[in-house]
Amino acid sequence: MGLKAEEINEHIAWQDVTVGCEIYEPGTSKLTKTGEWRSKTPEWIEEKCKQCLLCAPFCPDASIPVCEGKRGEFDYDHCKGCGICIKACPFQAIRWKEEN
Amino acid sequence: MSIRERLSGNEAIATAMRQINPDVFAMFPITPSTEIPQYFAQYVADGKVDTEFICVESEHSSLSACLGAEAAGCRAVTATSSAGLSFMNEVLYVAASSRLPVVLAVACRALTGPININHDYSDSMAERDSGFIQIYAENNQEVYDNYLQAHRIAEHPDVRLPLMICEDGFITSHAIENIELEEDDKVKAFVGEYHPENYLLKEENPLAVGPYGISAYYMEARVAQAHAMMNAKQVILDVAADFEKTFGRKYGLIEEYKMEDAELAMVIMGSSAGTAKAAVDELREAGVKAGLIKIRVFRPFPGEEIANALKNCKAVAIMDKSEGFSGCGGPLYAETSGACYNLKTRPLMVDIVFGLGGRDFTVESAKSVYDRLAKIAETGETGDIYTHMGQRER
Amino acid sequence: MNDMIEIRWHGRGGQGAKTASQLLADAAFMSGKYVQSFPEYGPERSGAPITAYNRISEERCPIHSNIYDPDYVAVVDETLLESVDVTAGLSESGAIIINSAKSPEELKPLLKGYAGRVCTIDARAISLAYLGKYFPNTPMLAAVVEVSKCVDKEQFLKDMEGSYRHKFAKKPQLVEGNLQCLRAAMKEVRG
């Protein structure tokens, strides 16, 4: 088997590239903090939240963790700031963070 | 013991497939390859194979289904011709770069237009840059033998590339000739089972295939793929050596026919090579030092081997059975002349585009080529280098 | 390849000229020969003239072109004599075998001066008499074997019997009729 995902980077030689660029393990998105690409940030207002959980399945980056039937704080390591959760929330419990 | 039979090229391929019993056959029909899935469907119906036989809606889909199956760890096959192969074009590149060793049987046929169902290599030559290994056959025996070797070459860890088994549409695909078949259990033992190390749903480490490769990775991936194609040469020879040991029939990258002392030579592919051999035999009897090189493996291109075989010739004709429309010669000419460029002494060389859309190539046609080569050797003048043969002219 | 026999078949799409060439290849194969049987595909239309070919030899034949100078020509449909140049390239030491109720003399004027042997076989009458239906291929096959001698006759009949017993395993009553049809056709070739 070839390199582990965490060993693959922009410095490896062609001889070390896996066959067909295959990745031999699951869950490799943990290694890449795509949240760095975010230009706008959603903010969860916990007191307005009814825990209806409509936001979680809409999130294209699986960045709204749900634990024991309740959503928690955003996973900002992977949230790309698309804002879909803001549209999905019927209770205005998510809004854009004012960032300066 | 070999089994004496008489089969068409298509039935020979279907028979090889039955003996190998692949996991998946995704099919979409097109003349003249249609009989391959047709025969195979009968094997499925008769319970002679336990292959998952999937009827899809296009060639783009049939090859895509094969890729999915291969990624899941299956041995997957399909067959096509002409426009069907063109419609697979996008997926051919995906198969090769994903390094998924699908085996694709191609009954080579002209591309439109004018609309034509007959044989030439327009379809397979158009895919010469796709990253598939391409192996061509002179007759039904060779197409059967090539097929028995295909999976082992394609699946070899040093290679892992998809592979086309090419036969001549109608001329080989539909002609019934004698053939030596091998026994089912011996074929199964020779080909072996396919157990890839990694596959999509492997529990310990599920596989991800076909990732995005930004410019920081693409070059490295392509170089690795190019090396796999280079590695294929040795693997093809190793598998051929084992095939000869097991079944007694010998194969190489090229076949040299009466080339030891040949002064006039032809480089040619497929069924036309057989016809040209009959011409060489006649000319040899008349004292002409004629020979020919038949290209069995076109991808990887055996440039060194061809150059070495041609180095002592005086005049050589490259026989292109696809036009290529480069304006200065067909693909076989471009690659062969390129391969000979670094020879210390080079033969005079001309390109002859022939046999397009089923235009017949006879022993007389082949002899006329050697006549032309004799004049070139005598005068030292090639005349026009890029030429066509067999067309009506004013 | 001096021993090689080359045969060209003329028929119409759907009449079975291709099948006849395959049957002849089968018969020659069973008697130990190397065979080729291949069609020439033009427009794939029922009724359109089609051509099929046989090469029969003692060694594998490497040639994969069409046949232009056949030793024998078999014409499954006599109406083709008017529209197709069936004797083109035909060896004068060979023969043409035409499916027709007419005599060779009656058909000779249609053959553009062909000076070789002309044979006819009334495949319809023989087929109807022994098979009860019109299957031109069975009498044509026998007539071609009789005239060309490309396969030993006795061996041919023996091999065909084996082949019919296999083919009609579930209808053994058809075996004898087919064999009688072959024997009758061999006897009744004219010319």
Overview of this protein structure:
- The complex is a heterotrimer of chains A (100), B (394) and C (191).
- Chain A folds into two domains: 32 residues, no CATH class; 68 residues, 2-Layer Sandwich (Alpha-Beta Plaits), CATH 3.30.70.
- In chain A, 9% of the residues lie in helices and 10% in strands.
- Chain A is built from two helices and four strands; from the N terminus they run βαββαβ.
- Chain A has a two-stranded antiparallel ribbon with strand order 1-4. Chain A has a two-stranded antiparallel sheet with strand order 2-3.
- In chain A, a hairpin with a 2-residue loop joins strand 2 and strand 3.
- Chain B is an alpha/beta fold and 394 residues long.
- Chain B has two domains: 245 residues, Rossmann fold, CATH 3.40.50; 135 residues, Rossmann fold.
- Chain B is 41% helix and 19% strand.
- Chain B is built from 13 helices and 15 strands.
- In chain B, the strands form three sheets. Chain B has a seven-stranded mixed sheet with strand order 3-2-4-5-7-6-12, sandwiched between helices. A six-stranded mixed sheet of chain B has the order 9-11-10-13-14-15, with helices on both faces. A two-stranded antiparallel ribbon of chain B has the order 1-8.
- In chain B, helix 12 links the parallel strand 13 and strand 14.
- The termini of chain B are far apart.
- Chain C is an alpha/beta fold and 191 residues long.
- Chain C has a single domain, classed as 3-Layer(aba) Sandwich (Pyruvate-ferredoxin Oxidoreductase, domain 3), CATH 3.40.920.10.
- Chain C has seven helices and six strands, in the order βαβββαβαβαααα.
- In chain C, strands 2-3-1-4-5-6 form a six-stranded mixed sheet.
- The longest helix of chain C has 16 residues.
- The radius of gyration of chain C is 16 Å and the shape is globular.
- The two termini of chain C are 28 Å apart.
- The mean pLDDT of chain C is 93.
- The chains are: A little secondary structure (100), B alpha/beta (394), C alpha/beta (191).
- Strand 8 of chain B pairs antiparallel with strand 2 of chain C.
